[in-house]
Amino acid sequence: MRLTMFGAAAAGREFVVWSPVVGLARSALAFATFLTLIATPTSTLFQALWDIGPQPICTGVNAVNWFCMFNPHLLDLGKILACVGLVLVMSGYLPQVTSLVHYWISFSVFNGIAIPDGGDQITVVLALLLVPICVTDPRTNHWHAAEMVHGPGRWRRGWSTAALVGIKIQMSILYLQSCIEKTAHDEWAIGNNLYYTATGVFGFSTPVRNLLGFILDSDMGVSILTWSVLALEFTLAIALVIPRRFRPHLFLLAVLLHGGIALFMGLWSFAIAMIAADLLLTLPFAGEAYSAGYQFTARRERERHVSATEIARRAASYGHTAGTRGRQNNL
Q1: Model's pTM, two decimal places?
Q2: With 249 labelled, which of 82, 125, 255, 326 sits at a CA distance of 20 to 30 A?
Q3: How many other C-beta atoms are found inside a 10 Å radius of the C-beta of residue 245?
Q4: What is the pLDDT of residues 97-120, one digit of tens each?
Q5: Measured between alpha carbons, how far is 244 from 246 in angstroms, rounded to an integer?
Q6: Residues near 260 by Cβ (< 8 Å), separated by ≥ 6?
Q7: Are 46 and 54 in contact (CB under 8 A)?
């Protein structure tokens, strides 16, 4: 499988951060939060925690929490309006404004619901780092073709580039820390963590355990899969120094890892958020996606244009040949 967005930018194409691929990642992060809100009952999201009380706790910095604007009996309304805000983010319109709304909602979810997960945490961090990119975006919709800024507004390119570099460094540190912390635990070091994960309370469902029983019953199979996670996390941690030609394969492996987490453990919002983050991590600056004028349909349109031009050229050539033959026959 060839991911064209990872391909080298055409000669002479300027680097630009405001790419529809960044918009895709941003929409995926918003969809992950949307999925958490829409698929979880309000009573579960904001259930009371032992020795703490009902959520959210509207004190300190959390007083600005989105859900603190609503009476406890109106949290359903707050959740619905948050979902509407996330739909606006996914639509791509006015990223200069919706990026602030996105961060507000993701901050509120992570700090307001009873049991947030790692996906909620990475979403709030990336939503904050995406703000400089979105606020400086010259487009009205993040799905539009990548656009370069010229003249006095070129300062925006520096701010947005710095934010994107920050996202890449943040993800590298996250994977490096995750890998190092895992190796400190015996079940990861000796290679049997997959077994404990699969058979634990929050592990695989019974049908999945039955399906993968031949692997879980194999010491070698369990060890290989457990250590492969560590190997992939370390590889993602050093993704920024890996040659560009290997990045598409690395991204696909990351999708496979988090897709497996979604399918086997049911952590869909976490998986979607991590896949979006992995896209921003592995996509190289020199890739076609970060070149001025790039859009998802551009390659298809170029191929269509080339095909039409080739057909016209061949038709003209055929007409010229037929005319020549006709004149030869008339002689």
Answers
A1: 0.84
A2: 125
A3: 11
A4: 999 999 999 999 999 998 888 899
A5: 5
A6: none
A7: yes
